[in-house]
Amino acid sequence: MKNGSIRFAIILAAISCAFCLLLPVHSQNNLDVKVSKDVLYERIGDVSEAMDIYQPAQTEGVLPAVILFHGGGWSAGDKSDFTTLAEGLARAGYVAFNVNYRLATAEGNKYPAQLDDVQTAVRWVRAHAKQYDINPNKLGALGASAGGHLVALLGTMDTRDNSDKALAKYSSRVDCVVDFFGPTDFAPKGLKTYSPLVMGILLNFFGKTPKEAPALYREASPVYHINSKTVPFLIFQGTSDPLVPYSQSVELYKDLKAKHIEAKLVLFKGEGHGFSKPEDNQTALQDTLAFFAKHLR
User: Fold this and answer.
1) In the chain, what are the domain boundaries?
2) φ/ψ bin of 56: left (φ > 0), alpha (ψ from -120 to 50), beta (otherwise)
3) Contacts of 127 (CB under 8 A, 6+ apart)
4) Domain made up of 2-296: CATH architecture
5) What would the pLDDT profile of 67-124 be if each residue is shown by its tens digit?
6) What are the angstrom distances between the C-alpha of 17 and each of 20, 70, 103, 157, 186?
7) 229-258 pLDDT per residue, tens
């Protein structure tokens, strides 16, 4: 299982970089970027989690923001995977918050630690809206794979743990979601679509088998939290993904539409866990920027 998680993280890092490198080249603006590295947003015991913040250096008024969550099987990866994407978004006129969260290990940090972290990150961003000149009601989220799963939860769930009094009045639900091939259904029906490699990653993530904790697996599944409060979604998925079957994204899309939630699903024929064709990456880039412009501008 450990080796499988490492292989998964290596795949995700390569995918993230392949997508992110496109964005600065095609940004409509050429703004200089101010970067604040390793800004602490959470401390739990001896563990601290931080984010990097990318701002257009010269702006007037408040800006929309995009919060980024890396992939890596919930057990690997780092905010540095999305550095280029964050810089590109800042040049396009957004404030980008590039976030680390606790990684699951054999010893601990099991779900819902990651959900609590990303929800805390969103509430922290809202609490510091004035400091970073952002509109707290214009927050988008983007994630890939494990990060895609987490942003899907940010668009479908309210705060799970609201015990932090300093952040209690701030919502953790973002205003729109861009989900790159994130898993969506861990209930028994959905689990039938996953490979043995991914099942090993899920066991590390949850710390229990589906038979031991069926309610936990269902709770972590975005498709079971869709309701009238769910935000607009843009979903990207390759039809030949060996890790997250495209049926997972199709299920999410259909469930969103059934509840009359705005959603767009872009399937790339023959693509895997990430997109190798330049034209597919270009489509993903253009659709992402158009989606954020529609919902955050």
Assistant:
1) 2-296
2) beta
3) 166, 167, 170
4) 3-Layer(aba) Sandwich (3.40)
5) 999 999 999 999 999 999 999 999 999 999 999 999 999 999 999 999 999 999 999 9
6) 5, 11, 20, 29, 27
7) 999 999 999 999 999 999 999 999 999 999
